[in-house]
Amino acid sequence: MAIKRIMTGINTQANKTPVAEQSRVNVRSLNEECGIFGVWGRSDAAQLTYYGLHALQHRGQEGAGIVSNREGHLWQERGLGLLSDVFRDPSRIDALQGNSAIGHVRYATAGSHGIENIQPLMVNFHDMQISLAHNGNLTNALTLREKLEEEGAIFQSSADSEILLHLIRRSKASTFVDKLKASLNVLRGGFAYLLLTPHGLYAALDPHAFRPFVVGQMPDGQYIVTSETAALDVVGAKFLRDVQPGELLIIDDSGLTIDHYTDKTTLNIDAMEYIYFARPDSSIYGVNVHQARKRMGAALAAEQPVKDADIVVGVPNSSLSAAAGFAEATGLPNEMGLVKNQYIARTFIEPTQDKRERAVRMKLSAVRDVVRGQNVVLVDDSIVRGTTSMFIVRMLKEAGAKSVHVRIASPTFKFPSFYGIDMQTTKELMGANHSLAEMTKMIEADSLGFLSVDGLVSAINLPYYGEGTGLTTAYFDGHYPSPIYDYQAGLAAFEARHEVDFAPEPTSTYHPHQVRSLRNQDILADGTVHLDAQPIMGGER
């Protein structure tokens, strides 16, 4: 993502939010950074990558690109807009010949919408080419970039993703793999990387596994690495396993080798993937997202019941699973009280109430004959700024709802995210600045209730038996699973009040045996796993 000096809304000399960063506001106000897809050994690699990225379009809708490897030479096509817009001209895919490719769909943070930030990035060195696609956010990017620039590095983009390319080139290690390992060990924060060279495809996940990352295999043997299992299903690949924290996967003509760039790892999957970001037909570490959301809805019904409710209405689309769970748990009818216009793309608007409300009404409509005269339980996945919730409540009441009781299938957002979600300031987080009573009044609801952190963890039901929960819930409880480096000064006031704390970087090794849904891994004598030689390996869905 773009390097930004947005911390928590606290105005310090070191951290002031640039005016440009405030110039455009997203209606939803909560966005995943991107989705990535890579394949090696397919004659239709670019076309397959296009299909895979299409399944990941929900992860990024403002830029897309594909880089292919044709007989050892990399070719790039990228542009602003939806994937279908960027590749509307068939000649762009036709230009990407070759038997391997990586692709990227991007959500661009405000102030970083230039073509130079659209990935995959590509560099041409005198002795090789490298292309890179990144999902996540580096928490030490500012420090690294300043150091690299002082040493003479010239950056072509404002994306923190480019830092890895500079580190690789400046490494003194003798082989490319060793250069990559050394560079990855310098980075902090959340990252899932795909790198394509003339000789191989490389995939690496951060030591905490903040972002989802999976491996699949096509029926005729080629390997796929991508952000979600839904993309594997679309291209007809069989799910093999979740990429594990600290792993470096190497895919070339000899097959897939699983190596590690560090053995200091832990498991801290971002809970927001289950709550909102991932597709409902995806599975993360053996947990289906739709089923997890249904359990969240059921837990919400138990924790935050609504007396004399008549119907349950979910906010389309990400909250429909939770609404189904709430309705099943209570025996209430699960009604389609809101309809989403599926043909409205992500809309950025000026931060005025009138324009925000018009944007919400363009996307959602109340079904009058369903909600008229009813006591409505409105189930949503989250409240960020709260303005969208207010407009929806107002819309339902204008359509004749007798009352609207808002129930949120996640805990209250109180603290920023730094691992790959565009939520790096508390300034606009309603839950960070207002009491429950104040929020209820602000969104014009008759009542408001949130799922507890314990309820969320139990609902996700990650089959994990290691230290902690295996999830990142810092946005709700303030317990960050790692230091946040360049951002930490901005949370000093919260830290002083003991509202947040930061675990140290891991010093021990997480092992997949700690997750019930993963099969045991037989590590070979050289410390790697060769799936071609060990076909029984992989995860169970």
TrEMBL record:
Identify which residues the record assigns to the active site.
34 (nucleophile)
Which UniProt keywords are present, listed alphabetically?
A: Glutamine amidotransferase, Glycosyltransferase, Magnesium, Metal-binding, Purine biosynthesis, Transferase
The record, for Gene3D superfamilies, names:
3.40.50.2020, Glutamine Phosphoribosylpyrophosphate, subunit 1, domain 1 (3.60.20.10)
Q: Which InterPro entries match?
A: GATase_2_dom, Ntn_hydrolases_N, PRTase-like, PRTase_dom, PurF, PurF_N
Q: What are the names of the required cofactors? A: Mg(2+)
User: Can you tell which superkingdom this protein's organism belongs to?
Assistant: Bacteria
Per the record, the pathway is: Purine metabolism; IMP biosynthesis via de novo pathway; N(1)-(5-phospho-D-ribosyl)glycinamide from 5-phospho-alpha-D-ribose 1-diphosphate: step 1/2
Q: Which GO terms describe its molecular function?
A: amidophosphoribosyltransferase activity; magnesium ion binding
Give the residues the record marks as binding Mg(2+). Answer: 318, 380-381
What are the GO BP annotations of this UniProt entry?
'de novo' IMP biosynthetic process; purine nucleobase biosynthetic process
Q: Which reaction does it catalyse?
A: 5-phospho-beta-D-ribosylamine + L-glutamate + diphosphate = 5-phospho-alpha-D-ribose 1-diphosphate + L-glutamine + H2O
Q: Where is the Glutamine amidotransferase type-2 domain?
A: 34-254
- Cofactor notes: Binds 1 Mg(2+) ion per subunit.
List the CDD domains hit by this protein, alphabetically: GPATase_N, PRTases_typeI
Query: For this protein, what is the EC number?
Result: 2.4.2.14
Q: Which Pfam families match?
A: GATase_6 (PF13522)
Q: Which family does it belong to?
A: In the C-terminal section; belongs to the purine/pyrimidine phosphoribosyltransferase family.
> What is the role of this chain?
Catalyzes the formation of phosphoribosylamine from phosphoribosylpyrophosphate (PRPP) and glutamine.
Please give the name of this protein. Answer: Amidophosphoribosyltransferase
Species whose genome carries this gene: Leuconostoc pseudomesenteroides
